[in-house]
Amino acid sequence: MNRRIIITDDGSSTLYVPGLDEHYHSVHGAMRESMHVFIGNGLNRVEKNPIAVLEVGFGTGLNACLTLEMLKRSSRGVYYESWEKYPLTNAEYEELNYTSLDGVDESLYRSITGAPWNHEFRVYPDGILKKIEADFLNFTSPRYFDLVYFDAFGPDCQPDLWTAEVFNSIGIRQLPGSILTTYSVKGLVRRNLAEAGYQVEKVPGPKGKREITVAIKK
Ligand SMILES: C[S@@+](CC[C@H](N)C(=O)[O-])C[C@H]1O[C@@H](n2cnc3c(N)ncnc32)[C@H](O)[C@@H]1O
């Protein structure tokens, strides 16, 4: 996939895909968006220990790194599974500036991005990462997930990933009260989440985005 690195408004980098006219994060701040959408309105809402997290779109590994770092620091156990159809190259990981930012542990970021695909990898004693190189349309899992980061490209770009059918394939692996968080508040996305059995809420978004979605499994 042809993509290039850009710097967003908070100084953190992200990728831009010219062929899709899509960014991996908000141009108003990649780090700010990850912290707000996925940590603030995802991880910070779930107290379970150990916790099982599912991510749709590993991408740069920023969400994974921020999440695993916070859980490691608070001595919580985690199984973190992340699906990715178009992995970055090592050169792309190297070009991103996350390891120079406050709040990102350089050696943790390197071990996460360098972890093997399709195998469980122990990031810290109670922290397991499994990166799966595959199309999320084929998602199945024997596990239940307490928290889901739905971070695919936007619904206008990838409508086939934001369907009630896909949300249902996740929903059957989430127990009542568990959470799915995503940056999109598009009406169709919220309706499809509701059809898949979620109670859908809009909450304030990060800079540059009025609202985001937090969905709670009923
Ligand atoms: C908006 S980016 C977010 C990336 C990531 N969460 C991050 O922090 O960098 C969307 C990601 O979804 C991935 N993706 C797109 N279609 C996919 C599919 N069908 N299955 C799995 N991953 C997909 C893209 O390659 C990209 O890495």
Please outline the helices and strands.
Layout: E1 4-7, E2 13-17, E3 22-23, H1 30-40, E4 51-56, H2 62-73, E5 78-84, H3 90-95, H4 106-114, E6 120-124, E7 127-133, E8 147-150, H5 164-171, E9 179-182, H6 187-195, E10 198-204, E11 211-217
Parallel strand pairs: 4-5, 4-8, 5-7, 8-9
Antiparallel strand pairs: 1-2, 2-3, 6-7, 9-11, 10-11
Helix pairs in contact: 1-2, 5-6
S-adenosylmethionine is lined by residues 24, 57, 59-60, 62-63, 83-86, 135-137, 151-153, 158, 161.
Feature tags:
alpha/beta; eight-stranded mixed sheet
Care to describe what's here?
By secondary structure, the protein is α/β, with parallel strands linked by helices. It has one domain: Vaccinia Virus protein VP39 (Rossmann fold, 3-Layer(aba) Sandwich), CATH 3.40.50. Helix content is 25%, strand content 27%. It is built from six helices and eleven strands. The strands form two sheets. The protein has an eight-stranded mixed sheet with strand order 6-7-5-4-8-9-11-10, sandwiched between helices. Helix 1 packs across helix 2 and helix 5 crosses helix 6. The longest helix has 12 residues. The radius of gyration is 16 Å and the shape is globular. It starts with a strand and ends with a strand. The site of S-adenosylmethionine has 18 residues, from helix 2 and strand 5.
